[in-house]
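USER: Write out one fold?

ASSISTANT:
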Amino acid sequence: MEMKQIMTTNLVTINPEGSLLKATSLMRQHKVDALPVIDQNQKLLGLITKSHVLEAFLHNLPPTTPVKDLMITELFTMSPEDDADKTWEVPVGRVPVVDDEGKILGIVTRTDLIRSYYKELKRLNAILNERLENYREALKHFRESHFQQVIYKSPAMAQVVELARRVADIDATVLILGESGSGKEVIASLIHQESRRRTENFIKINCSAIPENLLESELFGYEQGAFSGANKNGKPGLFELANHGTIFLDEIGDLPLQLQAKLLRVLQEKEIFRLGSTTPRKLDVRIIAATNKDLAQMVAAKTFREDLYYRLNVIPIVIPPLRERPEDIPVLVEYFLEVFNKKHGYHKHFAPELVDFLAEKSWPGNVRELANTIERLLIVSPGSLVTLNDYHNLFSPVKVKETPEELTLAQKISSIEQTLLLKALNTYGSTRKAAKALGISQASLIRKAKKYGIKTGL
């Protein structure tokens, strides 16, 4: 830190002919304990302090005594570019700062130095706290974005994986296309793991799962006081957390038009603005986007920006649905059996006829629906060998008993409602899409799922 950064420049000075009385008056008026004595050219001649004034009065010197007779002339001075820490090496409490011609520019006291240290500590502490919060948020999202293996046997998926690995180290935007539950996030994480950014954060965000009014602050962060209820210290957005790493924007087709424009700016300018801020923050982040929608059709319908579409669609990767690659189903069943057996402490197996039956199903919810089905079968089936009968017992259509004494109308309705909720969630993977398929609001679906003890991930 240089002297010019912390010196006091608004100085109260006195000329050498000024009287002892005037010096006393200036010190009291401006609440200072020393006055630089300067000539008409601002050149520093000396310094008179409160100690000199007190000593003069103790010796009964007349108030008209000129300060040139009292001032100290042997001064330690420093230049504006000198290191302020050198002030501690000087055996006085204040150091005048002068230019090459000896003209006074300011004064640095040890109090100034301590104050500057305190400000610097506060600044560094604020940066440290912000980075700590960033690391906490990034760690939370990193844990949520645990990397999964890509399990496949089909030539179609082999081509997808080969392309993903080939483009991993090409720092370009990737657009992953595929139906819900087909494995878009798995391919996105594979690209990150194979890229040179693998040691940095992989941050994922589902654009359809966050309410529109909160999405901007989640993506770009906000400054303190940006809106009612905001964190008093502000908050970094997911783009900041992903800096130097990768951000995965799932369900990009659900991004509102207003935020599409801001995302376009991020892609073009490599910078973001926090909500409530006018200061840009530079970013170095790779963007991988994914959707189950036809973005080209959305562009034609004016519901998705054409310029953003071309910015995202640099390297498209299309994941085929599970029904088009049935040879992947047996290896996926084996993989998920291992995962869920370990998760729940089981040692169960699937009968060959059950695996064959699962391989013939169309799976509209793709890999996600298959995984949910396997986990439910493992939990509900009583024996160590899960059979085709266990599947039929679990997933057969609800049969409403005709005897009103055994089941009331309300109970029958609840049973059917619960089954429909489970099927929709397994098929569509998100509460918003499941609610849309059932013709109810997302809030209603979440409330009903909570009523029946069905987990929704919210």
